[in-house]
Automatic annotation (TrEMBL), chain A:
Transmembrane segments: 109-128, 134-158, 165-188, 208-231
Transmembrane helix listed as a keyword: yes
Protein origin, superkingdom: Bacteria
Alphabetized UniProt keyword annotations: Membrane, Transmembrane, Transmembrane helix
Name of this protein: Uncharacterized protein
UniProtKB/TrEMBL annotation, chain B:
Record key words, sorted: DNA-binding
Pfam family, one: PadR
Protein's UniProt name: DNA-binding transcriptional regulator, PadR family
Origin superkingdom: Bacteria
Any one GO MF annotation of this record: DNA binding
The UniProt record lists the keyword Transferase: no
Residue ranges of every copy of the Transcription regulator PadR N-terminal domain listed in the record: 15-88
Amino acid sequence: MKGRAGLPNPGLTVWVLRWVALYTRGLPEGAARDRADEIASDLFEHNAAAVAADQSKRATTLSILTRALTGMGADVLWRERQLQQEHRRQLSVASPALRTRYSRVARGAVALGAAVAILTLASTIRVLTNVPTAWGVSSVTGQIAVTVGVLLALLALLRSSSRILGALFFAALSLPLCLAVAQNTMYISLTLAQVMQSALAPFAATSYYLAFAVLFIPAYLLIAVFMTIAVRLRALHRRIRLEAYTPAHETTMLY
Amino acid sequence: MEYSILSAVVELSASRTDPYGYTIAASIARADEGRGLTAHGTLYKALGRLVESGMLVAAWEAPETAEGEGRPRRRLYEVTAAGAKALQTHANEKLSASTAFTPVPGRLATS
């Protein structure tokens, strides 16, 4: 995509069109092409109008840059919507068996993610209410950061277009989550802290590192489960996409 | 934003100017003085939404026309009957809201 000769802002035109190419990547061809052509036309007309009005190059550059930058949020939201619509369309033409499998995995992922998020939120509330106020918020920063991360991961998991990303977020957050909970166990529940201490004592007697390894078993399990979900969702997405773009009589030959 | 776009498309069509992205943005900016041109993302997202909801129809102009004038082709918009009706309803609502809140001289409460 080259900037047009004779226009005041060929460099800026190229930059804006690169941004368009970036956020339309992976979208249905028609939607991506329409958006790219429409922005290319807009940039050309904007430049032409500026030249006709004898506007300074600086003012035109600023105006185009402002329009591009302030619209970036809307561009990303538009992309999300296009992806969701495309996914829904592909799912609607997928075979009933594939649809059932996909919705089962998606429901399971959302249920597990919601359970983890609720437990995380509940433990954070306990920590915030039990930690002495004199210690300040800095002492629980890790717990708060992990909670925000988990809630964002749940949000991603709830959206069909970012479900795989959500599962990967959960997997990535499992270790920090486990570490934050382990650090603050005595502020979450004294009973839980005692149970953990007695359960880890035999391992700690052998090796401090072994006790740590055992302490993180829930994190390993969460990583394994969420990674499995991400892999399965990806495989199902690919099969759904394949079915959507393959004539009905050929899909039976694919499996 | 949606009503501004519908209004701009109607005005541009009435003045025999092709309603496409840039002219729509320029028309909105003219109608609302002090406001700059609408951001790319906001404008085209709203235009897409209006087309999806049946308020506008969009059609790409013939490539020959654009090639003949040495510019990229334009996507031209037209207000549908549903869009015109929605715009009229919005205008009526705005009008009744403004008359409802117009203070009548001499009828203001004094106690």
